[in-house]
Amino acid sequence: MTAEALAWLDRLESLGIQPGLERITALLARLGDPQRDLPSVIVAGTNGKGSVVAFLASILESAGVKAGIYTSPHLVRFNERIRIGAETIADADLAALIGEVRSAVEAMRRDGQASPTYFEATTALAFLHFRRRQAPLAVLEVGMGGRYDATNVAEPLACAITPIALDHTQWLGRTVAEIAWQKAGIVRSGVPLVVSRQEPAARRVILEEAGRLGAPVVESVTCSFEPARGFSDPPAFSLATPSGGLYDARLALRGDHQTDNAAAAVLLAEILRERRLVRFDPGTVARGLSNARWPGRLDLVPGSAEAGGADLLLDGAHNPAGCATVADYVRMHHARRPRRVLLFAAMRDKEASAMLAALRPVVDEAILTGLPVARGTPASELEAPARDLGLPAAVEPDPIAGLRIASRRAGPGGLVIACGSLYLVGALLQ
């Protein structure tokens, strides 16, 4: 039953991306508006929003609050997108809820209304599940943009905007400022807003929108950080917040950029504490930060003799800014590797050339591969941009075969860096 239900949901993918709140609003109305009475946190941004959600969810669970968590996309199983605390939605619950959503969608079509998209239907599933399970709180990761994203029908108690960069430019705008305006669409009058470290143009737009709406703002840059042992991997540091909070943090997630994501999550948790939705002390936060997991983000997998002895670094970076973050991490923590080989794939709507350019300085060669989705760029089409960058590259359309080749090329003590798309990471994890 679950496979049949998911097959129906997958067919909605053919509708593509259609920004707007009309369809999700109409769909939820037919389902009894499950989002109406659900206290929520909305997290938007280009990069880092999933990490902020992961940190906040872990802090809440450490404090005894099993929040409803909605993220996208999934890596291996659809169920990963919808969970209560650490528990992903069960197959039986998923099949039943898809049946309810399907009935509502078919009724909309009969009445001449436009069909909801895949992401809109998925968002409705999440709201239904959270209501049925009586989740005390929902933490929602925006899918794309913010202003017209399906998650933006929620009524949040707190919002956050993580770093903004160029991505989805055909829908969100051609400049960082235009994209920031879209992301700032989650801001609500009087609702506290956490703002991560931003480019000046993005910060200006966000703060202007918050000022216009009267939303109180706290910025992660107002926190102070004290490294516990230099540039450690993963990071360990003490964090002081503007409200006077002092927390020790020893993260499981790698990369220095995670310090800012952790700070944003702590600031959100402090807002929820002020709203009396959670109680915690510094120890609770420390446990939450150290227990947070977010697979496929600077995920270091030790090598084996069968794989050629090379270690594997998995990261879902899918835009130039994300790839630059991966490059910075490799430069700082893996510069002494004897050889570094890139396994790369990208979606058609991504700037593959700019992504490869960001990674070029830290790799010796690349294996260019494909993705198990129709919107993936054929591996052969990545060869020209690699050549233009002077990057030695071979083409292997199958990502598993590509991983074997990359591992052999990297050799004992070497590093394979697999990135360019979360779909690539998912294929390798599966």
Question: Explain this structure to me?
Answer:
The structure is a single chain. By secondary structure, this protein is α/β, with parallel strands linked by helices. The chain has two domains: 2-291, UDP-N-acetylmuramoyl-L-alanine:D-glutamate ligase (3-Layer(aba) Sandwich), CATH 3.40.1190.10; 299-429, Alpha-Beta Complex (Protein-Tyrosine Phosphatase, Chain A), CATH 3.90.190.20. Helices cover 39% and strands 16% of the residues. α12 links the parallel β14 and β15 (365-368). The model has no long low-confidence stretch (mean pLDDT 95).
The chain-level structural class is alpha/beta
How many individual helices?
15
**CATH C-level name of the largest domain:** Alpha Beta
Helix content: 25-40%
Poorly predicted regions: none
- For the record, give the distance between the C-alpha atoms at the N and C termini, rounded to a whole number: 22 Å
Q: Measured on Cα atoms, how large is the radius of gyration?
A: 21 Å
- Which CATH architecture of the largest domain would you pick? 3-Layer(aba) Sandwich
- As for the CATH topology of the largest domain, it is UDP-N-acetylmuramoyl-L-alanine:D-glutamate ligase
SSE layout and pairing:
Elements: H1 2-11, H2 22-30, E1 40-44, H3 49-62, E2 68-70, E3 82-84, E4 87-88, H4 91-110, H5 118-132, E5 138-141, E6 156-161, H6 169-172, H7 176-183, E7 193-195, H8 200-213, E8 217-219, E9 224-227, E10 236-240, E11 246-250, H9 258-274, H10 282-291, E12 299-301, E13 311-314, H11 320-333, E14 340-344, H12 352-359, E15 365-368, H13 383-388, E16 393-395, H14 399-410, E17 415-419, H15 422-429
Parallel strand pairs: 1-5, 1-6, 2-5, 6-7, 7-8, 13-17, 14-15, 14-17, 15-16
Antiparallel strand pairs: 2-3, 3-4, 9-10, 10-11, 12-13
Helix pairs in contact: 1-4, 2-5, 3-9, 3-10, 4-5, 7-8, 11-12
